[in-house]
Design goal:
Helix content is about 65%, strand content about 0%. The chain has about 120 residues and is mostly helical. It has one domain (about 10-115). Helix 6 runs antiparallel to helix 7. GO terms for molecular function: metal ion binding; prenyltransferase activity.
Length: about 120
Amino acid sequence: MLTVPTLSQRHIDNMYEFGKHLGMAFQLIDDVLDFVTDEANLGKPSGADLQMGLATGPVLFAAQRYPELNAIMLRQFSLDGDTERALELVKQAAQRCLFQFRDSLSRKALLHVAANFLQRDR
């Protein structure tokens, strides 16, 4: 018989935060790729969201959470290191949630998923 483990509210909250930050990281990467990748690699027109004047929810959410991202987004990731800095901030936020858990294979697996997830290029 399969049983569901009982998790503390702290564990549930940390997993929620991890998922939220990982999802935000995915969307930010998509938004960054919109700035730095051509249409052939991206699979859609580059800059489409900006050209349509859309500020997506995840972009606004990230800017509220990480004030440093406001300036980076305003200059559209145009300075050397902007893209890397934005991705690093989001990556740190997701990983910080996982470090609340004890060192285990499960935590290592989730860290691995997050690291690979952030390496996408399309």
